[in-house]
Amino acid sequence: METTLVDRAPLQDFVIPARHGRAFEVEQGSTIKFIDVDGQQCADIIAFNRDNLKERMSPFRSVSLAGKIYFTTGDQLVSDDLEPLLTITSDAVGTHDILCGSCSPGMNRTRNGGLGAGKRTCHVNFVEQLRQYNVAPEDIPYSLNIFMNYPIGPTGQMEYATCKSQPGDAIEFRAEKDLVVVVSNCPQELTPLNGFNPTSSRIQVFGAQ
Amino acid sequence: MHTFESLTSETEQETVTTIPSGGYALLRVAFGETLVLTDEDGGQAAQIIPVVAGDHRDRFSSANTMAINKTAFFTNGHIFYSYFCQEMMTIVGDDTGSHSLLPSPLGSEGSPSYTAGQHSQGLLAEVAASLETEPQLMPFPFQAFVQHDLSADGKVSAPKSGSAKGHTLALRADMDLDVAIVNNPFLLAGSPDDRIISARILPTNREV
């Protein structure tokens, strides 16, 4: 489904540098547009009810409600109590991961040993951005991984592949509540996810129509 | 904090605990010990939630477990990882052959599967209270004996049990753990509510 945001001025418009994240707040009804500036860049997105940070996005409950693991236009990201938080309203790529959570120092250590030491990760980005909201590191929910190409075969096997997104590809979400949203440009350069070259992304927030 | 039952004694004799349908057990499994679950009646499912003993902030992570093992269906040799990617348990014995970590579809609101799913969350909330964990911080559990089909377009089938009467699943603890085992009749909508699952812990170095 194509965007309906043509000729509208965004309320927020910023670039997230490669390997970094950004927290921002949106009002119910707003549209969040994530733009992959250079292509082949995946990003992790999480969300909280701004007025009750214990109400958090739950990828697993979202999968249960949708009955499927591949999300695209029309699908909803819900909370642990099945409350809608974000609805995908436009999706240029159609390939995302919702099961595997975010990369972290522990995951880098487990998968890559010393090679992973000292590298930025999505979980580190989330910790940094959520410090201002007093969210503890262990309380950070799992993410929807935008444009992440990690398909699952019929016998359950998974294998990393490079994001399919091209420069300028975008996905749009409608906020179903007033939210705190955090987006992390995945810093992974030891797997093929980002083509071994993490790049920046752009976020635009449009007010409710 | 809740006191977790240890099923091993100084004489290393096993103690078996039975978990009725709708019930749960909270067990302490020490590093090197092996937790063995048995589907006594067949056709059942159980939820397993390991947390780090003494620090429940680090708990089982289905996301990390799938990402690192690169699979959604688990059997011998696969490792459970925690939220901070610590190795928690290793599957060292498996009669069923495959256990799915995919979330089961709820179906439409008001349907039997939806109602069962909500009841299942209610049971997990009770377990959360026993673990002194807030409900929204309860991890998505490991689903013993549960199997799903996954279509090419990503649709998840209704869950089924892959276990026959007497099937066991053996998990070696790779660190000191507190483990909640839930005999959850709501995992499989329509399953009988009178079946039991048993748990025993083998001491360190005793083979399954």
* Count of separate DSSP helical elements of chain A: 3
**Roughly what percent helix of chain A?**
10-25%
If you compute it from the alpha carbons, what radius of gyration of chain A comes out, rounded to the nearest whole angstrom? 16 Å
Number of continuous helical runs of chain B: 2
Fraction of residues in β-strands of chain B: 25-35%
Shape of chain B: globular
Structure characteristics:
heterodimer; A: 209 residues; alpha+beta; 11 strands; 30% strand; B: 208 residues; six-stranded antiparallel β-sheet; five-stranded mixed β-sheet; 2 helices; 13% helix; globular
What does this structure look like?
The complex is a heterodimer of chains A (209) and B (208). Chain A contains 3 helices and 11 strands. Chain A is of the alpha+beta class. Chain A starts with 11 loop residues before the first strand and ends with a strand. Chain B is of the alpha+beta class and 208 residues long. In chain B, the strands form 4 sheets. A 6-stranded antiparallel beta sheet of chain B has the order 2-15-4-13-8-7. A 5-stranded mixed beta sheet of chain B has the order 1-3-14-5-10, with helices on one face. In chain B, strands 6-9 form a two-stranded antiparallel ribbon. The longest helix of chain B has 19 residues. Chain B is globular, with a radius of gyration of 16 Å. Chain B starts with a strand and ends in a 6-residue tail after the last strand. The model of chain B has no long low-confidence stretch (mean pLDDT 89). At the A-B interface, strand 5, helix 1 and helix 2 of A face helix 1 of B.
